[in-house]
Amino acid sequence: MAFKGLAVLSYHTCPLSDEKNAEIGGINTYVLELSKALSQKGYFIDIYTRSVDTNSPQVVKVNPNLRVIHLSAGPANSVSKENPIHYIQEFTGNIKQFIKEERLSYDLISAHYYLSGLIGLAIREKLRIPLFMTFHTLALMKNLVERDSDYQRIEAEFKLVKYSDKIIATSEADLEYIHTLYDCPLKKIFILTPGVDLAIFKPIEKKLAKKSINAGLNHKLILFVGRIVPLKGLDTLLYAIKILVKRNPKQTICLWIIGEKSSESKRLILLRDLLKIKTFVKFVGKIDNRNLPNYYNAAEVLVLPSQYESFGITALEAMACGVPVITTDVAGISKLLDKKHSQLLTSASNPIMLAKKINHLLTDNQEHTKMGREVAKKVQDLSWDNIAKEFVNLLSP
């Protein structure tokens, strides 16, 4: 084993964080679960992240081979992903100091999100070891949807593509964008999809799941799980629910939206009320990952209406529970679905098509059962242990 020690950078979000205003999302799951799986294979891993609570310990030992290290950078509280860029230099200096004081050595730097990548470039220059870069989301694609160009970030991503030793894409679409839009040679890009914890996310009896979350036993539960931001296309989902209600007034449907409340959720609540579907749509708030399997299993379908999605971990989790997932064809996870599962694919910003796809699953029990069984089979090879094995293969020159 040529590589033994990994310095993992997750600057803007702590993979252990459950603070009220913390940045929670797929990056947290990806970083922590992949690191845990690698540590169980004998790799020694330190995850460096920005401290947002002075009362929390600086070093948290997850297991004998894995630590999460919180270092100060700017104010000791949660800040947006845009503001931490001002504290990168301070954070980088604190990493170098920590490494020096602890007499640490690493064989590889793995950086997640562009802010971590900028730190990784400085650390690599100091330690003279390879840098693997995983963007998770791309500024050029985000700009395509939100029309809000962050040229500083775009320039940083071009720089990281040029100077990183390897670029890890989370899907085939992600690879294509990095190659074509960012001029990255194909030989430098490798796909490493997210995994899923198959011991936690697995099918359970629907009635028991519904009772555990106080959902109506006769209601057809439609679920969304994720960050509540414009990219997720939740307004399209609300329009689709309005269409379903209008066309099928006797159908007992409900939509539960799970995710940290945000300024976008406030806008969506106003839209929900304007559409007169308040009794059909519930904003649940954030749910602990340990309770998510009950929500997935209680649902008839999970909907991922994203206008841009590098992959879609929540869809993977739902599929592992045997729950059909309707996703837009722009999401990375859509590539797991073949032609016979076209019923589960919709186009972005198309509420009429989305409503038809949802209605088909809710009214055709045989098709629903078949789809649930087949999507569960599709993710059985995507355990975090298998994803870690693929990462190990990337370590060879």
UniProtKB/TrEMBL annotation:
Q: Check the record and name the InterPro entries matching this protein.
A: Glyco_trans_1, Glyco_trans_4-like_N, Glycosyltransferase_grp1
Cross-referenced Pfam families, in alphabetical order? Answer: Glyco_transf_4, Glycos_transf_1
Domain of life where this protein originates: Bacteria
GO molecular function term, any single one? glycosyltransferase activity
Sequence ranges assigned to domain Glycosyltransferase subfamily 4-like N-terminal in this UniProt record: 24-199
Q: Which residues form the Glycosyl transferase family domain?
A: 209-375
Q: Which protein is depicted?
A: Glycosyl transferase family 1
